Amino acid sequence: MTVTTQRHGRILLVRMDRPAKRNALDATMTAGLDAALNELDDDPDLWAGVLAGTPVAFSAGTDLAAGAGAPTERGGPYGVVRRERRTPLIAAVEGLAYGGGFELVLACDLVVAARAARFALPETARGLIANCGALFRAPRALPRNIATEMLLTGLPLGAERAWSLGLVNRLVEEGEAEAAAMELAEFVCANAPVAQSASLRAVAEVDADADERGWAATAAAHAVISASADAAEGVAAFREKRAPRWAGN
């Protein structure tokens, strides 16, 4: 299985486990994440969740060879990024969180990262765009110029800088992100679950109008690049392990 779950009292640990592909998201992983987060939201005995990857990678994003599968009914892309969650979710990041992997992080409520972790949005290097929330969530979580640099250059942002900019809640030593996220989840679970859920809903409601505009703008941008020769060239170059030859159309 590429997604596993473990219950630790009132906490559900959800782990992406496809190390050979650096936890790249395919249809099986999307279905697994959707099922895990359905369990997290539907079981009243679960008061917090932790989303983790492997020591080398949180997630490298969409599997460009296989595709990430269709958006799920409750979770949207990856089974996560358009979900209306009632239960707090904490990202535990070791290694890289690139592309859709970073968009998973942005869809969480809190972020714990190891010092060696890296975040990036390399889609434009493939002739694509970040279409799972980063176009509007990254400028919300980071200073706008930093988020724009990530979107336009694809260059990674290190965990220490991400912590200094407020993206990361807890910065820990390498190999300790999952344990630290579980500890943070224990603090969450010490508080009243009804109040926690109501707080999440209130925060989501404040952002709801902006999110709808963000999804509409993302869809419009995706329509533009989907019709471009550069999108096909970028994916082909990635698969063939060569530099892309951009046509600019």
What would you note in describing this structure?
With 249 residues, this protein is of the alpha/beta class. The N and C termini lie far apart (40 Å). The chain has a single domain, classed as Alpha-Beta Complex (2-enoyl-CoA Hydratase, Chain A, domain 1). α3 crosses α4. The model has no long low-confidence stretch (mean pLDDT 96). The chain is globular, with a radius of gyration of 17 Å. The protein has eight helices and ten strands. The strands form two sheets. It has a six-stranded mixed sheet, sandwiched between helices. A four-stranded mixed sheet has the order 4-6-8-9.
Number of strands: 10
Name the beta content range: 15-25%
Question: What Rg, in angstroms, do the CA atoms define?
Answer: 17 Å
Classified in CATH, the superfamily is 2-enoyl-CoA Hydratase, Chain A, domain 1
Low-confidence stretches: none
Number of domains: 1
CATH topology label: 2-enoyl-CoA Hydratase, Chain A, domain 1
Strand order of the largest sheet: 1-2-3-5-7-10
Give the CA-CA distance, first to last residue: 40 Å
CATH class: Alpha Beta
User: Number of helical runs?
Assistant: 8
CATH architecture: Alpha-Beta Complex
Order of helices and strands: EEHEEEEHEEHHEHEHHH
Helix percent band: 40-55%
Largest sheet: 6 strands, mixed
- Briefly note the structural class of the backbone: alpha/beta
Averaging pLDDT over every residue, what do you get?
96
Shape: globular
Compile the SSE list and pairings.
Layout: E1 3-8, E2 11-16, H1 27-42, E3 48-52, E4 57-59, E5 89-93, E6 96-98, H2 100-107, E7 110-114, E8 118-120, H3 134-141, H4 144-153, E9 157-158, H5 159-164, E10 170-172, H6 177-189, H7 193-226, H8 229-240
Helix pairs in contact: 2-3, 3-4
